[in-house]
Amino acid sequence: MGKITLRNVQKRFGEVAVIPEIDLDIDEGEFVVFVGPSGCGKSTLLRLIAGLEDVSGGVIQIDGVDATTLPPAKRGLAMVFQSYALYPHMSVRRNIAFPLKMAGLPPDEIARKVDAAAKVLNLSAYIDRRPGQLSGGQRQRVAIGRAIVREPKAFLFDEPLSNLDAALRVNMRLEISELHQTLKTTMVYVTHDQVEAMTMADKIVVLNAGRVEQVGSPLELYRTPRNVFVAGFIGSPKMNLIEGAAAAAEGAATIGIRPEHLDISSNAGTWAGTVGISEHLGSDTFLHVHSDHGTLNVRAGGEVGLRHGDRVWLTPQADKLHRFDAKGARII
Amino acid sequence: MATQHSRAAARLMISPAVGVLLIWMIVPLAMTLWFSFQQYNLLYPDRTGFAGWDNYRYFVTDFRFGAAIRNTLVLVLGVLAITTIGGILLALLLDQPFRGQGIVRLLVLAPFFVMPTVSALVWKNMFMNPVNGFFGHIAQAFGAQAGFDFLGQAPLMSVIIMVAWQWLPFATLILLTALQSLDREQIEAAEMDGAGAWSRFVYIVLPHMTRAITVVILIQTIFLLSVYAEILVTTNGGPGTASLNLPFLVYLASIVDNDVGMGAAGGVIAIILANIVAFFLMRAIGKNLET
Questions:
Q1: CA distance B289 to B24
Q2: A158 — alpha (psi -120 to 50), left (phi > 0) or beta?
Q3: What gap in Å lies between CA B110 and CA B113, rounded to an integer?
Q4: How do residues B193-237 score in pLDDT, each as one tens digit?
Q5: Alpha helices of B125-259 — where are they, by DSSP H?
């Protein structure tokens, strides 16, 4: 259970077409991440699937059934909101029990399910507290708990980690991934953070201005970005994009090379430059090299012996070079 | 820099204001207490001196006292019920997006700016008058001789309607702001959780508004216990004692009966009763204000 299909889905707010037209297939049990810059329509797309917004055109099918006009509650989906949207006047127990109560389940069954969910999410110790007395991570888990007790066909996450601090975010990322391994339920996850997308997704949908730029597994997107936008968006630090003479030499309008695919040498190479800022992370060093083709990001080993102002030469690994035409599409 | 020095300076700075307020409050209170134990009747200037508890005894045993207490309670509770329930409904209505929202919200507030005497007179002459009033005209349009005589037949009810009309905007405004501060995502989450409109109202919206409702009830109770102008210009407490409340009885005793001492005793009783009500009110619903 949990197959979601979008056909020609459109969304307009007045004259503004937030989503011009989208076709998308989300398979059973998949972890799909919508990623894109802010304002690209990824949250709107999620809300369309949830039923919190009405589509302006097109069809949404859930498990093969037309759900386009179904109210949110009838779609069998559960959503975790960015603000968690916990009910502040209810205890953790009553928060998690709320959807079950609304479904009219008998009290003893509700209690059993709530206890089970609390145990899975390590919430048992806080079960009688109110959301206001919990930390950010605990609130996040309550929100997830409220979603899993319903045993939905799919989970929808709307930037769930953006309110957490960096360390907690890494933890919750793992917890959500583990939850997906345990439950094997379809998950649709919206984020603007490509690291979250890369680490969690089975399938990434890159969105830009309401359009799907590319759909694929994280490594597919990383290795063969279909256009300049995807190339620049996926990967951290960003791929170096070079236009002009260097690109023309490769028969392209733009060429792209990832920081880890640039070999650096202090005596010979293709492009000359001077070392600018270098960021030492211990395991790696990211060097900003000022060359004739702009500032290039280079990933070097942790022990690299280069200093600010050193003269260096960079050589792109030929088989790792991405070439794009004038419209930004990949040249195969 | 809350040093010892700056704190002392702060105390010094606010002491004139505190002093004025203290005198402002203490002097009338002390005088009322003093008069309440004195023989002080304007009709008998020769009878003066200490009266003991006589003024209190006369006030409590006055044939109008029981009615005054009962009417005060009915008035307060009646207005509270109408304004809170009506205020919630109006707030829900005004929270919906519609054209001309700003103007409508401003208009809803209007009754609160009308002074009590004026609003009571407008109600009395233009609405509730059985012959010339608006309701009277409606009744006549349906073939009746004259409309219902509100002030004669249901005086307390009429006063309640007038006062409720005045206070409804206040309740609506406070409840509307509470409603607008409700997180949209909570409503959406409840929607996803399968809660219908009624469940969302009962489980999400109403609990969110409890604090505002508490504030509305507390503030209104304080003002409603002392309703006076509306009664003075409409029914004068009558017919008989039908629309007589405690403040109006104090007025009757001290101004109409010229018995300043008994009026003062009534005032002290009113203070004590108001404090008892406030105490129970704070205990019953005041805990909503804490969290």
A1: 29
A2: beta
A3: 6
A4: 888 889 999 999 999 998 889 889 888 988 898 898 889 998 888
A5: 134-141, 150-153, 155-180, 184-192, 197-200, 206-224, 229-233, 246-251
Could B210 and A89 be called an inter-chain contact, meaning their C-beta atoms sit closer than 8 Å? Answer: yes
Q: What ipTM does the predicted assembly reach?
A: 0.81
Predicted structure pTM score: 0.79
The 10s digit of each residue's pLDDT in A164-214 is 888 888 888 998 999 899 889 999 999 988 888 999 999 999 999 888 999
| Residue B197 at interface with chain A, using a CB cutoff of 8 Å | no
In the numeric block, the tokens 């650096």 are attached to A264
Q: Could you tell me which CATH class the domain A4-230 is placed in?
A: alpha beta
Lateral strand order in the sheet of A77-80? A77-80, A154-158, A186-191, A31-35, A203-208, A211-216
Which residue intervals of chain A bear CATH 2.40.50.140?
Answer: 240-324
CB atoms A98 and B207 under 8 Å: no
Domain boundaries, chain B: 65-243
A13 in contact with B at a CB cutoff of 8 Å? Answer: no
- Provide the H-helix boundaries in A15-135: 42-50, 92-102, 107-120
Does domain A240-324 match CATH 3.40.50.720?
no
Name the closest residue on chain B to residue A144, using Cα atoms.
B189
Task: State the Rg of chain B over Cα.
Answer: 24
* B41: its two tokens: 């009747």
What CATH architecture applies to the domain B65-243? Answer: Orthogonal Bundle (1.10)
- Alpha-carbon distance of B91 to B172, in angstroms, equals 5
Answer whether A73 sits within 8 Å of B186, measured CB to CB. no
Contact B194 A83 (CB under 8 A): no
| The pLDDT of residue A40 | 87
DSSP class of A321: -
Q: What's the pLDDT score for residue B43?
A: 85
Residues whose CB falls within 8 Å of the CB of residue B55, separated by 6 or more in sequence, listed in order: B36, B37, B38, B259, B261, B262, B264, B265
Confidence of residue A157 (pLDDT cuts 50, 70, 90): very high
Q: How far apart are CA B246 and CA B78, in angstroms?
A: 16
Owner of token pair 């492009």: A271
Does the CA dihedral B48-B53-B56-B61 come out positive or negative? negative
- Look up residue B208 and give its two tokens: 């969110």
Distance CA B17, CA B25 (A): 12
**Best CA proximity match to B266, nearest among B282, B280, B252, B256:** B252
Map tokens 């949990």 to a residue.
A2
